[in-house]
Hints:
This protein is mainly α. Helix content is 63%, strand content 2%.
Amino acid sequence: MKLAANGKLLLVALVAAALFVASAQRLKVMPRQIVNVEMQVALPLFVQVAMAAGDRFLAANIAAIRAIWVNSFNMKPEEFGILAKVQQDVAWLNPAHEDNYYVAAAILPWAGEVDAAQAILARSTVARRFDYQPAFYYAFNQMHFRGDAIGASAWLREAAEYLPEGDERVQMQNLAAIWLDKAGDLDLAIRVVEGLAKQASRRDFRRYLEMRVTRLRMLKDLRAAAADYRQRFGRPPAALQALAASGVVAQIPQDPFGLGFAIDANGQVVLGNAPPPAPEGQH
Length: 283
């Protein structure tokens, strides 16, 4: 009897072991959700400071470490919201924290947290007057995610102020002027570039900006002509030459940069980005 009982126990054990192995193999191939434990909750600020023994800079470092080490590839949208809150807390505790603004610029806007990224970068810009990058990233986000050429240009000019005098600053100011080409409000863009030209200390750069003003004025005039053409003929011009051929303008102005102008798919006059083809017989 005892031998039979032992045999039954052994059989049960073998069956249980077989079931365990089968289950383990089955679970091994099943997709599993990776949970970011680091981004499950954002603690209130006073709790973070209390846990850091009252040291807000230590609290900022602890929160920044959470943000840096989190695996953002597997995060859900709501977890990005928590990450944004954690990084905004760091910006409040220590707005000059370099790693925090850099990680925020690299992750948050691409995950839909543009407002949070901009808030962090704005605080860092104020706290890090020696560093042009927070203002530059703010400008990029303003242009890329919000389509605000005027605001982006203003932040680029802010970034330029944190660069040393010389070519680097001029290049940043130049980029600020170029971005204004994409502004919807051409009158405002013209005024801003005119202001840049008046403030330019280098004569060659001032002349360059004045040429950009001329180009923007030409664009404004051509857009007005295209609107007149549409009103007269009930359709947008198919090509720039239609404006001259119809008598709406006497001639198409010559772009001072040689890139010309064009008509987009909506019949809107836009700045060209390539030199116009040379007339036949000329090279």
